[in-house]
Task: inverse folding
């Protein structure tokens, strides 16, 4: 897991740079991402807690779909 620069995250999520920074900060505050900064870039890496959260969310969505729930 090498992480991603904020510009890459913004582009893939179709968000403005500012919005991507804001969202990544919230995920960092929740300890779902960690941020590594150098002089020019901020690299965001998913944490173990973030991986577990993603897996649990995928399980929930699968369950919701199987029960024909709206989400």
Result:
């Amino acid at each position: 897991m090498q992480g991603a620069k904020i510009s890459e995250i913004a582009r893939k999520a179709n968000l403005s740079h500012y919005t991507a920074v804001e969202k990544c900060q919230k995920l960092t505050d929740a300890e779902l991402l960690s941020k590594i900064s150098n002089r020019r870039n901020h690299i965001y890496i998913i944490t173990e807690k973030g991986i577990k959260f993603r897996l649990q969310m995928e399980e929930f969505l699968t369950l919701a779909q199987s029960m024909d729930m709206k989400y």
Summary: The chain has a mean pLDDT of 93. The helical segments are 6-13, 17-29, 48-66. Residues 6 and 42 are 6 Å apart (CA to CA).
